[in-house]
Amino acid sequence: MSAKEDILDAIRQGLTRGQGGALPRRAPEEIRAEAASLLHDLDAIRPDLAADDPVAAFIEKCANPALGVTLSRVAGWQALPKAVKSYLDLHGLAHDLAVSGDVRLSELADAGITTHKTCAVDQAAAISIAGWGIAETGSVVVHSARDQPILNVMLPRHWLVVVEESKILPFLDDYATYAAIRPRNVVIVTGSSGTTDIEGFFVRGAHGPGFVHVLLLGA
Q1: If you write DSSP's letter for every residue of 148-215 in order, what string do you get?
Q2: Radius of gyration of the chain (CA)
Q3: How far apart are the first and last CA of the chain?
């Protein structure tokens, strides 16, 4: 037999025999019925949110300075440039941003912020627009697209991400419907990047942004 056949045969033996002897081969209908039963009453197995309202729960889970995440509420798209400038000034950063190609960010340039589509390896700050926020975990979801480069999420020291309140989903599994869109790449970010070395020192920005700032847009 080929190596592929050897592997498949070992899997079949493991599924039908197991460690303690013979295991009956389960019919596909039985497996589907069991899977459906696990999803029969989702509310019974879902955890409680941090607050009754999904937006409030998202803020409670997301805005955690200990995780390197800050959050500001913004009245709407018109107020976004001022909020971005305020963040850059607070951290002593130049008014220079790598931006996605989303036209909703075009007013940043009109507000005196230098914008460019290329995210450098030493980029100080970049901004993206999240497709969704997850109240359960305080996560943001970004789909890759021609106007939404994933490098903006990974390379900068400071990552600013716009999340619309109307796009806050209560639970992570609520996102499954949208995941079926099948983008080329999906990034789900929960907190900033950090790691602890062997001596116990926390290192921020080890494999992604060291600081994440969520700009939560109201209607």
Answers
A1: B-THHHHS-SEEEEEEEGGGEESSGGGGHHHHTT--S-EEEE-S--EEE-TTS-EEETSSS-SEEEEE
A2: 22
A3: 62
The residue written with tokens 């607070």 in the block is 90
Sign of the alpha-carbon dihedral angle for 107, 99, 204, 69: positive
Same domain for 72 and 17: no
C-alpha to C-alpha distance for 120 and 19, rounded to whole angstroms: 53
Q: Do the beta carbons of residue 117 and residue 98 sit within 8 Å?
A: yes
What's the pLDDT tens digit per position in 20-79? 556 666 788 998 998 888 877 777 778 888 888 999 999 999 887 777 789 999 999 999
Q: Which of 51, 49, 61, 52 is nearest to 216 (CA)?
A: 61
For residue 136, give the H/E element and its range.
none
The whole model's pTM is what?
A: 0.79
What is the number of other CB atoms lying within 10 angstroms of the CB of residue 71?
18
CA 184 from chain centre, in angstroms, equals: 15
Domain that holds residue 170: 46-217
CATH number where 127 lies: 3.40.50.10420
68 and 131 in a common domain:
yes
In terms of residues, how long is the chain?
219
Confidence grade of residue 81 (pLDDT, cut at 50, 70, 90): very high
